[in-house]
Amino acid sequence: MLARAGAILKAAGVDSPALDAELLLAAAAGVDRSKLLSGSHSLDERSIVRFEEFIARRAAREPVAYIVCRKEFYGLDFEVNPHVLIPRPETELLVETALEFLAHRPQAAVLDLGTGSGAIAIAIAVNARGVRVIATDISTAALALAQRNAERLGCAQRVEFAAGDCWAALPCSHPKFDLILSNPPYIPADEVARLQPEVARFEPEIALSGGKDGLEFYRRIAREVSSHLTAGGEMIVEVGAGQAAAVALALSDCGCRVLEVLRDLDGHERVVRARLAA
């Protein structure tokens, strides 16, 4: 079954056909992949039918995460669906950088702009238990999913969700934040359709397209960041390929001092960290 499914996925252009077939068979059978491969589990007819349905969906290039409705991020198991971007491993660098800052401010107020599945906000809340986090998103469907993730992962009491477009999600009277985080849409609009089919066809365009040059959301953040960040507070954002210098300049022009640009494990500039002047 695995060999046949792997051949179908390979013919469909899937990058990791054997692995994906194993993951989908384990999900269809409702068991851990290691147990499945150990030969200690027998497949019933229902599992086989589900597996064949999963393979057909994957052959159409639907992402595995949407098929199984799960994605691991920062050691946590998140529910995902087509209303949210699938969390990426490279975004864990943003979380690591934020947690280094929070180690010195354990009672900080944190804002996550554009939370999607809640991956960043929840990873912060789980690993820095003294902080309070507000997570915003323009999509109410995304926020409903993020709320479920917060409840299942035991941090719903410390993460507040707010609907709205960027800063508009916050009430005018809200106190300033010690740390603001964002992994905004940063793909240039005319490049979205040219992305891998898994992304272009299935992930929400609103979470991908960053306007004509991919930098629209960063400019919107920068224009108002000083009104929402405490003196000495930090802004940490994920950026796309070749965007770090432009994002750093936008933050500098709006009163922040860029502290560093961090590279991910592939060597790409991935995270810009800036501080508002005291």
Could you explain the architecture of this structure?
The chain has 278 residues and is α/β, with parallel strands linked by helices. It folds into 2 domains: 2-60, no CATH class; 83-276, Vaccinia Virus protein VP39 (Rossmann fold, 3-Layer(aba) Sandwich), CATH 3.40.50. Helix content is 39%, strand content 20%. The protein has 11 helices and 9 strands. The protein has helices spanning 2-11, 17-29, 33-37, 45-59, 64-68, 92-102, 119-127, 140-152, 197-200, 216-228, 244-253, and strands at 70-73, 76-79, 109-113, 132-137, 159-163, 177-182, 229-238, 256-263, 269-276. The strands form 2 sheets. It has a 7-stranded mixed beta sheet with strand order 5-4-3-6-7-9-8, sandwiched between helices. A hairpin with a 5-residue loop joins strand 8 (256-263) and strand 9 (269-276). The mean pLDDT is 95.
List the helices and strands and how they pair.
Layout: H1 2-11, H2 17-29, H3 33-37, H4 45-59, H5 64-68, E1 70-73, E2 76-79, H6 92-102, E3 109-113, H7 119-127, E4 132-137, H8 140-152, E5 159-163, E6 177-182, H9 197-200, H10 216-228, E7 229-238, H11 244-253, E8 256-263, E9 269-276
Parallel strand pairs: 3-4, 3-6, 4-5, 6-7
Antiparallel strand pairs: 1-2, 7-9, 8-9
Helix pairs in contact: 1-2, 1-4, 2-4, 6-7, 10-11
